[in-house]
Structures are given as C-alpha cells and as structure tokens.
Predict the 3D structure of the following.
Amino acid sequence: MRTALIVAALAVLLALPSVMKPYYVTLVLPALAYAIALLGFNLLFGYAGLLSFGHALFVAIGAYGAAVLSSRMGVKSFEVILLVSAAAAVSAAIPVALLAVRYVKIFFGILTLAFSMLFHSFLFKFYDLTGGDTGIRVLRPSLLGRDFASLDKTAFLVGPFYYYCVALLVVLGFLMWRLVHSPFGLHLVASRENRRKSEYLGVRVRFIRLIAFAISAFYGAVGGVILAINTGQADPELAYWTHSGELVFMTVLGGFASFMGPLVGAFTFVFLKSELMGATQYWRFWLGAILLAIVVLFPRGLVGLGQELWARARKQ
Amino acid sequence: MSALIETLDVRKAYGEFVALDGVSLAIAEGEIVSIVGPNGAGKTTLVNLLTGLAAPTSGSVRFKGEDIAGVGPVVLARRGMARAFQLVHVFPSLTVAQTIAVAVVSRTGKAMSLLAAIGSDAAVNARVREVAEIFGLERKLHTQSRFLSQGEKKLLDIASAFALAPEVILLDEPTSGVSSADKHGLMRNVIDSARKAGVKSIILVEHDMDLVAEYSSRIVALQSGRVLADRAPADFFADPQIVAAIVGKRVGRLAKDAH
C-alpha cells in the first residue's frame, strides 16, 4: 500500500511539467525544497523529540551559500554549490548543537531560535557583506556541467532543474528512510522516549543528537539552495523566525509522527498558502485557523487522518 | 577472590547534608549482595555512586580496578555494568524487540551504522530473541511496551539491561509492583538468567526482607550514611538489634521465620 502510494506520487511529480501550467510547476519547486528541508527537520522533531524553533537558520545558510557562490565567486556548478552550502550549514550546526543538545523541550527551541535570529541580524545589518534587506542575487547554475543556455529562466526551472530536484528528493528521502530505520535511528528514538533508561543501555544521547542535528542542517541547506535558485534571490526573511514557524507548521500539518507527514505537509502548505494569498488578504488568519483545527481535531496531521480514514474504509 | 566493585572510605555530602560517610565495601565475583536500610539511610546515593552517576565528595569508587567516579551510565554500560530501575523504565512506543535491540546495538558498537537496516540484522535479531526467551517475552516481541502488563514491563526493563551482557547488574527493587505471588518466580528467573548470561555479581537494593534473606549471599546494611553491618544472611538475621534497626521488629521476625 505504502509503496503503491509512493510510486503514484512520484509518477504525478514527474508528469506535472507536461500537464500543468509553468506557474504551478514553479510552485512545486519550493514544495520540493521544503520537503527536503523537512526530512531533516523531522529527524530532530519527530524522531529525536527535539523541536527546533530556529531551523530556518540552515535553510538561510543554504540560500546565502548559493547566493555568495554564484554571484560573488562565480561558481556555476549546482553540485559544488549544494555541497559547499550544505558543508557550511553543517559547520555552523556543530557549535549550535554542542550547546543546544544539552537541553530539551522549550530550552532547546529557544536556543535554536536565538541562533537563527542572530544570523538574521547579521544578514540585515552587515549591508556591505550581505546586501542587507535586499539580499543577494542567485544566478542560474549549471547542472552536471551543462548550462542549458538555450532555455529561458522559467523553462530552465520547470524543466531540467525541476527533474533534478525531484531526483534529489528521492535520493535524500531514501537515505533518510534508511537512517531512521538504522541502529542509529533506534537509539535516537530510545533517547526521545526515555533518556535516562537509554543511557543505561549505552546510548550516547548527546553525541547522537549532535549527529542528528548536523544531518538535519545538511538537509535544511539543500532545501535552502533550491529555494534561492527558484526565486533568484537570498534575503534575510529566510532566517526570520516566522520562516522557522512555517517549517514547524508544515510538519504539524502533515503529521510529525510519520515519515511521510512532513512531505505531505510541505506540498499542502505551499499550495494552500498560494491559493489563500490569491483569494484573500487575510490569508494569515485562515492559515492560523487551519493549523488550530489540525492540532485540535487531527493531532497526527493529514497523514494520520488519511491512515484513520483508510483503516475505517477497510473495516466496512 | 578479587573485588569486582569496591568503594573506599566514600563520603558524599550535599551541602550541609552528609548522605554517605566513610562507606567502604567490596563486592567479589559470584556474590549477590543486598543493600538494605531504612529510607534516608543513603541507599540511593550509594547506588548513584556505584553506577557512576555521581562522584563522591571524597574516597574512591572502583569497578574492575578502574576509578568510575562520575563517569556516567553510558561508559559503565560499555565497561560491563547494567542497571534495572525501581520504577519501570521502558520506551512506550518501542516494541519489546526494539527495546532489547537498543542494548544489543550498544553492546555490538553498531550505533553509528547510519544506513544499515536494523530490522534485517540477523545477528541483532538472534540476540534479541535469545534474551527475550530467557525472560519469557518471546511471544510479545512485536508488542509495543506501553501495551505490556506491569509485570511484563518489569521483565522487559531487566531483560534490556541483560542484553548488554554485563558482568555486574544492579537491581533496584526488582520486584516492586510485582504481586507477592510472582516475586519469587521473578527473582529466581532473574538470578538463573544472570548465571546463564555470564553475570558475575548482582547488587540488589531491596526493602523486602523475605527476598533479601532468600537470595543474598551477603547483606550490607546502611544507617544514616554509614555501614551498620556487612554480613552473611544467617549472621545478619541472628542479630536482633541489627534487624530491628534496619527493618523494625515485625519484619525482623518474619525474616527469621523464613529461615
């Protein structure tokens, strides 16, 4: 059943550019970016039980990595941009994690929030370095050494870049799936469920949390690179706390208790937001109302709701 | 007989309050040592020192000749000491098999296998099944811990500690929450399993004098942070003063009857 759903979803993703208007396909790109970022976010939140309120930090590092590398240093290769930006995010994550993994719950959340706001202030204030509130442009990269010069910007984004991002989601999704079902993943869940007991069973809680944090930063940065290339811009709003809030929102919307939840959440959120923004200026109100309804009525998110409906349908 | 665990003139103070004062004891291979004493005598503090959770204010705590003052549970688990808890400690959403596997993974140093599939690791699964069978949990392997009965949770707590293949296991009131009809069954099961699993010594912290009298090879009685007595059970229960000081007269008589 699960495999069938995944294959179907993948088929839809691959078919989209040929059946949908380019505008909608450019909406799928941020959804792909968020899906990748949330795979990492939920390793911390869903599996390790650590809720980061500042995870946009790593998305922003990815985006600014892409901006600096492409417009300031003339790097064209998407692969190099991905790896260098993700490596930067991991190096930033390690000192943050060394401090943050000592804490859980609200203290962990506030610490991560504080770090992301520090980065936001840095981006905002150091105008000469970061472009301040206007940010830095992100130039179109080459993919596997090919720069697709004959395609215009939109054709590039909804064409080769789109398929590349789908492939990234598949590969990174598969790796994350393996990770959460590995001995490491088991220790992570054990440390979430009962820290003291897990330590007595030999689980190195702080160390595995640190590793999980670094991996989630890697995924966050990959998402950030894709977002920035899609919009052609890296700006400080990416590091702002409301952006971190959106990451939490998407995860809760889809359901953090399941592997697929954040992916469903990312796609639903991006489309919901774009539809609401087009329909009403009070879109923030409606997004809030929807989140409220999800938390109260379906605490396991859309995936949890789907599972429940499926179980009920099978009974009848 | 060489001492597996020893404390030398250990003192532990929390500010003004002295929880332990000049405690020296040695536990050798093959012993089952009970630590008894009224509430506030320092049992919990001693257990925390023995399991490396806290460091003594002065004096030393050694396990296999090495200082373990405050090294923490993770290091001790690797060196061969396990602990089961007074209150049941399990992972509510993990299954019985997964819970035991947590310890097997630590034991085999596989915790950093980031991409290996735990579910299809034959060596881990075989060991998990073996441990589950020792404790009669093999039919519940795929049940989540939160759906187990209180007694089964207790067994699982101890079983997961056994899965570390420890040399020493510290049992903190292993039969609390278990019906009095079942407690002897559980204790015999635990001690037999321990022998089979190669556990060399057992430290038992227990209020139930019935169990202490039946299963200990030696009893260490604490009172107000000092060792009041360190004797074989027969000597211990033959001294009415000590028994009265530790457990009160009524239970003292009970334990004597048991002999």
Summary: The longest strand of chain A covers residues 136-137. Chain A has a mean pLDDT of 89. Chain A touches chain B at residues 175, 178-179, 181-187, 189-190, 193-194, 196-205, 208, 211 (CB under 8 Å).
